[in-house]
Every structure is written in structure tokens, then in C-alpha cells.
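Reader question, answered in our methods column.
A reader sent in the components of a multi-part assembly and asked whether the whole thing could be modeled at once rather than chain by chain. We filled in our standard form and ran it. Here is what they sent:
COMPLEX SIZE: three components
ENTRIES:
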Amino acid sequence: MKLGFYPGCSLEGASREYNESVMAIAEEMGIELVSIPDWNCCGATAAHNMDKELSLSLPARNLALAEEAGLTELVVPCAACYSRFCATQHELKHDENLHKKINGIIEKEYKGNLRILNVIQFIEEFIIDKLEDKMKFEINKKVACYYGCLLVRPNKVLNFDRTEDPQTMDAVMKKLGADSIDWAFKTECCGAGFSVSFTETVGRLSGQIIEDAVHRGAEAMIVACPMCHSNLDMRRPEIDKYNKKKSDMPIIYITQAIGLALGIDRKKLGLQRHFVPVKLNDFKPYTKKTEVENPQKMEVE
Amino acid sequence: MSEFEPKIVAFVCNWCTYAGADLTGTSRIKYSSNVRIVRFPCTGRIDYMLLTKAFAGGADGIIVSGCHPNDCHYTSGNFYARRRWMVFRRLCDFMGIDTRRIIFSWVSAAEGAKWAQIVNSANEEFKKLGPYENYHKLSTQEIFE
Amino acid sequence: MARIGVFICHCGENISATVDCAKVAEAAAKFPGVVHSIDYKYMCSDPGQTLVGNAIKEHNLTGVVVSACSPRMHEPTFRRACAEAGLNPYQCEMANLREHCSWVHERNEKTDDKAIDLVRMLVEKVKRNNALQPIKVPVTKTALVIGGGVAGIQAALDIANAGHKVIMVEREPSIGGHMSQLSETFPTLDCSQCILTPRMVEVAQNPNIKLYTYAEIESVEGFVGNFIVKIRKKAKSIDESKCNGCGLCTTKCPNKKNPNEFELGMAKRPAIYVPFPQAVPNIPVIDKTQCTYYKTGKCKICEKVCQANAIQFDQQDEIIEVPVGAIAICTGFDIKKTDFFPEYGYGKHKDIIDGLQFERLASASGPTAGEIRRPSDGQVPKKIVFVACAGSRDPAKGIEYCSKICCMYTAKHAILYKHKVHDGTAYIFYMDIRAAGKNYDEFTRRAIEEDDAKYIRGRVSKIYERDGKLIVVGADTLMGAQTVEIEADMVVLATAGVANQGAEKLAQILHVSYDQHKFFSEAHPKLKPVETNTAGIYLAGACQSPKDIPESVAAASGVAGKISCLFSNSELTREPLIAVVDRLAPPQYSSCTGCFMCQSVCPYNAIEREEIKDRNGNLVKQLAFINPGLCQGCGTCVAVCKSKSIDIEGYTNSQMYSEVDALLNF
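And here is the structure of the entire assembly that came back:
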């Protein structure tokens, strides 16, 4: 199976391990991810603060390129890229004149038929059903799923999961055998783009997130956004300073968690690249539930 | 030769536009005198055949006016009038009746000034269009003569 | 042969200053059918009216056109004058020479021409006017009151005290509605049950009121003065005539762990129960979904202990058909439950409650006997947060309208809390304090100044639980929108008031309109606030929009006044300007083809199907039939009728075409 893929800058740079883990599980599941040829920056957080047309043209060009390459689905693991792509698709769909104008700017015919998938949608659609056959371990840990802001908002544009109390990642983690906790900071701000400019603010905002998860007994935090990951992982000194206590709870990508359950080599998943070491181990070996054990469930399915 | 003066017929509802035109009077706002108002209970009552009748009889322009949407005395008569007008207009276009000669508007009982303004601007518009001779020529009278 | 009289009024100088009245009268005299045409200074004056009357008699007139002011002004006057002179009042028309001519044009020939045209139009119209008789409809002097809350109670008592019969239908086992659940009432803090329960007893004892509880409206047919209502009396499994209300069955019932609806789930009740101690009637019902006997076929303990032999397990729903003349809808409202709010935890925290639940906690007869104790562990909350506008005025996630009562009851809650927990602190997050009403603002000031409620102007973005505390995160917009975090023991959401469950279905049964929020719509927002668009059906209380007790009671008395007016005559008289379907001799019967397009456009559901049958009872034809009791005379059906079978009196096709014809073809 062939799916379109847009890595964006993060996955090629600071969040290489995200890319590695996405690729690793895709390979394991027999899915080929094809990068958009000659892709460019999505505009991220900067463009839409400066120039609306620029902020729409950048993603539109990528989308048009993907269409030209004959792709119908596009997997966008970075939550910021995903948000920009969806926003562009939404705006151009609802404003014909703007659509024409942007097509003129990018000198390409963007039609708007592409299905844009975030990493969780990708997992839900192409991975989750095959997990049972391939899982080697259960992630028998208490985890806190952290969604951040861009993955689920604005609901009107993304139409994905519940804005205030999202559940999709929790469902995936439960499938992996994890105990995903109910906690209060699932969608709070991590500090986002202040990662470099105001590290103290990141320390405070991410600090509250880490503190609540640790307080409720989480052994790991599961994320699906490179920016969240870098704030929560890389800014741990600032976080610990704000919380006035040290925490060693690792932050792992949901794709890494799946990789661990599939028994993929930790290096292949990029786990060694984290600032906060991922010490999680002692996973329970997974045995597939046979039909005889659970006949009723099979019937329902 | 004196300036062309169009014959204008106004079909209005009793509760809003007729009362609005009354208010124009009470407020002594002047408007051109070549309009004749025909009173109906509701714009919903207005049979659009009456419009063709008016053209056939020599009218150069027609105003249809009732209560604003959601203000209808009978709740929804004006919505049906509007809906039928949409269909009737398409039919007119198809048949070649000049729909610029039919002005559809909402005038409430409080809009005396708006009524005067609608009549005056309609008058100007119809003046520009000139006498509706094409239609008048169709007069069925000739057939009988 | 038509004999028309034309009467041109000068209206002092109002008309004659601009229009040459004598010239108009002269021109009118030449119109075909006009036998008499004069002008006069004041037609509406006594001598003017006499002039008209005398002319009718002298010239044997068959129609009159008074050319004067707007018919909206003096049409009734001149129609009366005509009637007095023996002419059918509907043979009189008015040409509007003042508002539509003399007042809006200059004095010149064109204005005179217009005046002459206007008179000619009306002369041609009046020639085709039919002599009409006012419509008389008999009235059944019994009112149906749907809903037994405070509005229904007030309406029923007022109507009954005016000497008319009332049938009250309540869905629940007891009347009382939401008001019976309240602890104290604003702005006086008098006890809700103390003022309501005597009124409930009055309803039960009033000989003019027949009360059906645990009953719902099944269908309504007919029209003003003549409704036929079917009421479904749900099986209580109790013979009401035998039950003496001793309550032994409810105490002996072994199945006691069912959520108590009256206490909003904060207490338990047996499967056979009376909703609350002061219930009217004080007769229990068996909850068939919970009762052990209905579920397993075994138990019947209540039957064994009942000394009156009142338990009837095989009782069936009963359909009662009653004729009524008027209907009062008093079905009240409901509130959004806490599970509506994702940011406040989807109702998963037990100590986040809604306003009605707080009422029960504060009520002396409530589950905690009036002590404020939180539902999770029974502790007395030392820090309590009230969130006003939970769901209200929130177009993005909730409801755009203001629920109106929350500002006041939240202030009341804060006061009651302080009175019961002296060392506690109450915080109130609010958007605006809307305390418009007699002694209302004083009341909220009292909450702030005397009872030390901490008002914080801002919204609450989230509430989460941590170590047994509820962390309320909000903004204080008066302090530069800074974040406020309060570690509360309990949170009360003043959730949005919404239409009652089943309101939409009831509206459809009654054929009354409702808005996008499923609240019933009044006929006119200002001038007909208690009427619906359907004649004879009225609205009171919070079924129309969120209302507090005084407003609901006032509206209910208004409805009672309207219904008493309706019942003050044995017959209703209505203007006969209504639509009619033509009738022809058999075998055609009518030109109506039975397409029923008219039925779909009628705003009043006045169009019915009439079946023409031959002597053997075989169906020959289906025709539209317009119920004269319901038709309001808008004429929309006339315009949509494809076969031109419907006409509307006063504005018939022949009248209107002649008017247009007269205007242009002369």
C-alpha cells in the first residue's frame, strides 16, 4: 500500500526520531510512505501571523504537488503541519475566489480532493486492525496521553475527536495494553513556539503538564506533535526548576509506543535520541486472544 | 411633448405595506402620484396572474410589497409570496416579460419614508424603461374588434 | 343591477385642499352602476353618517364607496352606519383619498385623476362584494391546562375561580413542577414549598378542576371553542379511588435503590413511590421499569400490605376523550445537565452539580435535610464555586440566549450557602449580573455586601479534580484577564434553561409553532405574548422562554384572563372574511381537484379533507374544506389553488381582477 507523506521540517531535524518511528511501523505493516516531491515549508506558526495569502499558498503548493503525484491520502505526522494543511483546505473549499487567487500564486491547480490524515487517523485507519497479529508486547504501563492544541483544534476545521477531552490516543494506547489515565492537562498549552525565545514560560506551562501527569502516577507521556515533544523533553531542566522537583518521566511518540509493542528495535525507533532517557522496559509478552476464549466478542465484531 | 409618465400598480398587503403607505400620508411625505395601490390581506394572497393582467391592461411597472420576513401577520404568507415570486420571475424571463418592471420589496408599517422612496425610485426606473408597448400591443381587445 | 352610492369626504381641508372633491364626485356619478354621488365636509361626523344612511334608504343602494381616509381608520365606522341603514355592512368599501392621495401629492390634475381612479377601482370592487354574515362558533366552556407547575396551577385556579371548568393534565405523578423542588425563592427568600403547596391543595380541592396526573396529551383535534382532546392516563398500577395515601406500600417495598428523580438522583426511592411528601395527589405510582414484580413476576409485597386493596398490577393505560374550548400550555422548562459540558468534565465529577441539585441540597426536605453537603462524601464544602452562564449566552458551544433566571438564583444560592456554612466562602464567576426586576438588584447587592459572595467577572475554562479538590480555572476580566485558580470543594453550574423534553412533540400535536430551541412561539412578541398562532391555544410560563416565578404567574393569569374572555360568550363572533372552497352541483360537487396544495401552505391548519359520499356511502370525491373557525383570512391558499376553486371573501378573484381592470382599462 502506498500513502502520501509530508515530513515537514521537524521530522527532518529536531524530531528525527518521530520520522524514524513512523517509518518503522509503516514498514512493519507493509505500508509505503511516499514523500511529496519537492515539498516546501508548511508556513507553520509564522506565516499566518504575517500574511494570510502566504500562509495559504505554502500548504496549497504542497497539496497541489501531492495531487500532481497522484496521491489520494496524505499522512502528516507533525501536528502543526497538519493544522496548516487542514486550515488551507478548509478555507479554499469555502471561498472560491480565494481558491482561484491562491492557485494563481502557486501557479498550480490545487483541486482539494486530498484526504489529509494526522498520525492518529493514520494509525486508526491503517495500523490498528493489524496490531493484534503483530504485537509482541503489551505496554503494561500507566501513561498520560497528551494531545496539545493543534491536533484537535479548531474543531470546525479538523472535525477530529472531542476538543476538550479527546480520546483517540487513549483508545490506541488501551489497545496496546496500556493503562491510559484520566487527567486534566490533555489539551493545555505546552509553550509551543516559545521553546527557544521564552524558555521560562515553557518551563511553567510544560511544568504544569508534567506535574499533573506525574502526580497521577503516569510512567510515560504519549504525544503526537514534535513541538510538544521538544518542549516536554528538551526543556526538562526548566520544567524541573519550575516544579522544584526532578521528574524522569519519558515523553514518547505514539508511533514509538506502537513500535515498542511490535518489538521493533529501540534504536530504529530513535528512542536513544531523547533528552529524558526512555527507561521503560519489562513489557509483558503479548498473546493474541484466540477465538475460543472470546467467542461473543468475535460475534459482535 | 410632456415627459413620459409610467402607469404603476402597487399590490400590497393590508398589515404592513398598506399601513406603511398610510404612515407616508400621515407623515406628509410626498411621492409621485402615478401609483395606484391595490389592497390585499397578505402578499400570500397575491395571484401573480394579476400582474400579467395589469401589464395587459396598460401598466408600465408593478410594485409588490408586504411585511418583512418573519413579520407576516399570518406568520408565513410573505414567505410563500417570495417563493412564488422566485418561480414566477423565472417564468417571466422564459416568456420574455421584462422582470425589471416588477419590483418586489418589504415595507413595514413603520416605514413610511421607505414607501415613498420605493415608489419614487421605481418611478425613475420605469421612466427609463419607457412605456411597455410590447406587452400592451398584445391587448386581446384587438382580437375581438 | 348594482346601485352604488359614492360619498366623497373633504375631511375638513385635508382632502379638499389637494383634491377637487366636487370634480371627483361628478366623475364618479358617471361610472356605470353609480346612482348617487356627493361630496361632503366631514363624512365621519354624525350628520355625514346620517347622509350615507339616508342615501341608502332613498336610493335603495346595493353598495357604498366612502372615499375618505384609510379604511384602517374608519372602515368599521362606515360599515356600522351602513348596517344601521339596512345595508349589509360588507357591501361598504372605502377609497383611501387622504393617506394615499391628498396627503402625499401636490394639488394638480394628476392628483384628481388618481382620486377618480381610486374611487372607480372601489366602485368596481364593491359591485362584486357579497353580503356576508359574521361567523358564529359555539364555545365549550371548559379549559385544558397542560402542565401542573406554578404557571399551570395559577392558570387553572384563575379560570376555575372565574366559574369555568378546568381539566389539568400533568405528566408526572404529582403537580408542583420545578417550583416544588426549590428551596427558597428570590428576592424574598420565602420557602418555595410553603407558598406553593397550599396552591397545589387548592387545585385538588377546587370543584371546577379535574386533575389528571401521570397523564399526557395523546391528540388534539378541532378548533377554538371546540377542541376534542384525547388524554392518555398512564397506568399507575394503583386504583386511585381506593388508595387512601397511607404510604405503607412505599415503606415496605423491598426495591428501594432507584434514583430519585425529584432529588435529581441525589437520593434513592422505592419502586412504588410518591415523588415527594407534599405531593398532590398523595397517591403512589409503581415504576414498572424498576418494580421487581414487573421484572421477575415475583414480589407483590405492596399488594399484601395494602389494606385498601388499591394495588392493581394489571391496570392498563386509559384514553380519555374530553371536549374543551381553550387550551393553556404550561409545560415549563428543563435545564442542561452537567454532562453537557466537556470543559467541566462531562458530568463525571460528583461534586460538580447543577442549580436544581443545589436547590435540593439547600431544601429542608431535601436529601441532606437542608445541610449543604457535597454528594461525593457528604462533607460540608468550605469553598464553593458557582459558575453562572454555564451554556447560556454561548453561541460557540452552548445556547445563544440568556437563561434569565440564573443570575438571581445564583445570588440566592450564595446567600443560602453563607447562611448555612458561616465559615465558608462562595465564589461566583459571572459574565454580567442581570438583575432587572423589582428588588432584584438589591438582592444581588445583598449577596455581595452582606453575605460576602466573591463575584469574579469572567468565564471558567475548565474544572478538574485533583486530590479530592475541584480545581476551577477561570479568568478575572476585571483584573486584566489574569488566570484565577480556585481549589473548591464543590462547584454549582447555573446551567442553561432549555425547552422541556417532549415540547416539540406536544407542539406538533397542538399545531402550534416553536422556535429553533423548541420553545413555544407566541403569536406576537409584544402585543400577543400569551397567545399562540392557533386561536384558542395559549402559553404561560417557561415553556415559552426561561422565566422566573413572578413572570410565569403573571403570564398564567394573563392566559386565564384571555380564556375567561373567550368563555364570557356562548358563541364566538368572527369577521367572515375567510376563504371558501366553491361548491357545484353533483356530479362535480366542486371544481376542487383535491390536490391539497392549499393544505400545505395554510399557516393555521384550517384546511381539512372533506369526503363526498354517495347514498351508499361510497367515496365519490375528496375536497378541501376550510374550517371557518380556524381560517384567519390570509388568502395564501387562494393564490396557490391551481383550479381556482378557493376564493376569499372580501378579496375574491372577481373583486381583485375588477379592481385592476377598472384602474387600467377605462
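What stands out: The mean pLDDT of chain C is 93. The CA atoms of residues 9 and 623 of chain C lie 46 Å apart.
Send us your own complexes using the same form.
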